[in-house]
Amino acid sequence: MREVYERLHLSRLHASPWQDTRSAESRRNDEVDDLLHEWANEKKREAKILFTGCGGSGKATLLRHLRILYGVPYTGDERRQWKMTIIKNMLSDSDAVLQYMRDQRIEFENDSNKDYAQAITAWSCNDDSNVVSGHIFEALKYLRIDKGYQSALFQTRDSWTHYPHSTLNLHYFINNLERLSAPNDLPSDEDILRASKRLCGITEVICDIGERKCRLYELGGSRGERKKWIHLFDDCSAVFFLAALNEYDQQLSEDSSVNRLSEALTLFESVTRSVWFANSAIVLFFTKVDIFLEKVTSGEIPIGKYFPEYDMLPNDIAAAQEFFANKFKKVAQITRKEIQVHYINVLSAESVKEAMSILQI
């Protein structure tokens, strides 16, 4: 409402006492009515959107990508902060790969790389440090060309079973190591999109998508913390729920008996049942579809092994996508919620733009 009073004050400053014979009170009432009407119309064009989903579904990446495409560009200071995050990602992910090598007894092609591996692990044990020596970058350069390390990197790129997150983006980062380790280099937009950062509190991004001003929100922190804030979004236009399709064969790192996509379905059900979102549009985004397609077409990881009710051809992509879409739709139907379903690559500008262009919110 502050905008209304500010505009009213400006209109009085520029008004002429000879322009209208009506009483001052009458003119003020009309001005207030006009400004309130204009303010209400602006609010109708504004969309308040909440992003949610299980960890690793890509919601933070999509939020960043929408800022890059439609919002305020990242500043130099912000990019410098992201640079340290990216370096820490490389080192912690590399340490996860090295741990996998130890667990699976994968040998280094070159025994001298064991010393480099110890340097990476030692740094990761003290990951509060914001100082990375040239020796650490040298270690990464030698490890990335070791065939044993490369094999472990490939095997862990889609794994949540042993580690708190996959090493999916590590291959990209170490291939750009020379650029990212240069002292004066600032991360690109793609670097920022591929980085991983634990969020706390509420993240807000304001941008214009089409003719609508959008306020985009993601809730960080633990599940208990998110519950404390959820009531603040009872007036949101839409809830964007993201689910990673490639996780149909994965288990929660904290509970290996729970399938990750089944967990996403459970969370989605709680969203559709929530009284806070009774008047909000529900939009389901299936993410990481490229890895899902690779898995399904290979025939090596059959969906039926993890979802016995799946009785279609093992490598039928269309049938597999429809199977999972119907599972989520069925949950929504219980609460009489109409949902929109989209398949999206959150790293692709073209895919994100296409998804945003056809949304009905």
UniProtKB/TrEMBL annotation:
GO MF annotation: an example: GTPase activity
Lineage: Eukaryota, Fungi, Dikarya, Ascomycota, Pezizomycotina
Record protein name field: G-alpha-domain-containing protein
GO terms (BP aspect): adenylate cyclase-modulating G protein-coupled receptor signaling pathway
Gene Ontology terms: cellular component: cytoplasm; heterotrimeric G-protein complex
Pfam families cross-referenced by the UniProt entry: G-alpha (PF00503)
Keywords, in A-Z order: GTP-binding, Metal-binding, Nucleotide-binding, Transducer
PROSITE patterns, sorted: G_ALPHA
